[in-house]
C-alpha cells in the first residue's frame, strides 16, 4: 500500500542491489473516528510483517500525535533499515532527508 503511494524510498549500490529502505506513509486525522489511522494489518498476508503492523497500530493508539501537536496530517516513517554491510555510511540519514 505505502509503496503504491510513491512515498517510500530505496537506496541501491552500483550493482542496483537494495542497501537501504525507508517505508513511508502519510497519516491523516480522521474526523469521523477516534481511532488511529488504518494500519493495513487486516489485509497483510505475511505473518511477520503483520506483527509489525499490529505493533505500529498499538503505538498510534497509545500516542495521539494529531492532538498532541494540533496537526491534521504527518509523514510516518514506518520502517528504516540499512544492510549491515553498508551501515555507518549515512544511508539512513540520506533516506530520511529525501523523504522530507
TrEMBL record:
CDD domains per UniProt: NAT_SF
One example GO MF annotation: N-acetyltransferase activity
Name of this protein: Dopamine N-acetyltransferase-like
Origin species: Diaphorina citri (Asian citrus psyllid)
Lineage: Eukaryota, Metazoa, Ecdysozoa, Arthropoda, Hexapoda
Amino acid at each position: 500500500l505505502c509503496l503504491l503511494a510513491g512515498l517510500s524510498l530505496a537506496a541501491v549500490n552500483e550493482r542496483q542491489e537494495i542497501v537501504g529502505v525507508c517505508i513511508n506513509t502519510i497519516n491523516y486525522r480522521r474526523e469521523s473516528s477516534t481511532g488511529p489511522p488504518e494500519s493495513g494489518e487486516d489485509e497483510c498476508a505475511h505473518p511477520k510483517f503483520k506483527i509489525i503492523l499490529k505493533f505500529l497500530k498499538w503505538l498510534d493508539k497509545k500516542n495521539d500525535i494529531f492532538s498532541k501537536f494540533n496537526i491534521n496530517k504527518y509523514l510516518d516513517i514506518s520502517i528504516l533499515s540499512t544492510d549491515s554491510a553498508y551501515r555507518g555510511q549515512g544511508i539512513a540519514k540520506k533516506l530520511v532527508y529525501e523523504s522530507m
